[in-house]
Amino acid sequence: MGLAMGGVNIIDIRRNNLNNSLAKDVTRGLDPKNGTQRSLPTLLLYNTEGLRLFEEITYLDEYYLTNAEIEVLTTHAVSIVERVPENSQLVELGSGNLRKVEILLNEFERTKKPVEYLALDVSLEELNRTFAELPSKSYQYVKCSGLLGTYDDALSWLKRSENRRKPTWVMSMGSSIGNFTRSEAAQFLGGFARTLGADDALLVGLDSCKDPQKVFRAYNDSKNVTREFYLNGLANANSILGFEAFKREDWDVAGIYDEVDGCHKAYYTPTRDVTIEAWSFTKGERIFFEQAFKYAEKEYQALWQQAGLTSTARFTSSTGDHNIHLLSSSPYILPTQPAEYAATLTPSLKEFEALWKLWDTVTTGMLPRNELLSKPINLRNALVFLPRAYSDVFRYAHY
């Protein structure tokens, strides 16, 4: 169903009533099985008021992630845009404020490359507001649309063939992947990886900062904007449940950076013993609701492998602790054990086919088309014209 708002078409892709789903998640989280820790769903944070507060957070100096990503996009916009095929569709998961993606959209306009940008958000009000702030009416080469729904709705929408008639780039900015556990992140990205075709890609912003104080301050700012953002999640829970289950004066927020896991975790804590219908909470008890995992190089390389993705480019901030990764679906997962990759003296036909799929990925996916014509040596392009003998390439591809 299309909802035309302010000249931008908003497509309602919701499969379920979000509030009903959240109400069930709240009940399950507060009455966990097998003695696991109580929790509340992170999605409670992102109602209309929550999205407004989060946007305010992104302008705080302590919340370094946004400025780092803006720097990366500004520095590397030309390189990113030149890799996007003409007439592609760019689907941004959890678009929020559009000031970051606007950097790329302006570059598409400058280079006169036609694309369609689709912003996914759970709030119709926020889609209308943020598109109103984007100069989309002046765009000649960028067509803008909105998708109203969740990540799961977007994945389901992309699986339908009628929505995949163009090359598709799925974008996840702001290190949103960090809100999943590492295994959940691999499963999440893997779902999108399995929908990607030869001309498709994932563009993922990921925070690699492991400075405990810097990370802690990003989620526990001196102006308490993040605290208000978190407490609004409880107000949203009240709205969804239909009664004032969580009284503001009874609850506070606690944030902790776990150096071992490389993760900031946030909890609701009752300031006194509290009883809500059948649920009893002890003063100081922790109710988990949000996490933000940080990824060192070994950790994001492991994530790509587990998700079935291949890194084709990485765009890095000046500090080196924030990256935007360009990823494609792996044509072939390279074995890592000698018993697998050196099982016989000569490669099989299947292994040769896999090798050439990798070669195609390098020459048509990892290199921009204009670089295929460059000559790093006087006569020939080393990558295209000087491949080693088949057996050498196959052997060294494993290292």
TrEMBL record:
Keywords: Methyltransferase, Transferase. The keyword Methyltransferase applies. Residues 23-328 form the Histidine-specific methyltransferase SAM-dependent domain. Gene3D superfamilies: Vaccinia Virus protein VP39 (3.40.50.150). One of its GO terms (molecular function) is methyltransferase activity. GO terms for biological process: methylation. The keyword Cytoplasm does not apply. This is Histidine-specific methyltransferase SAM-dependent domain-containing protein.
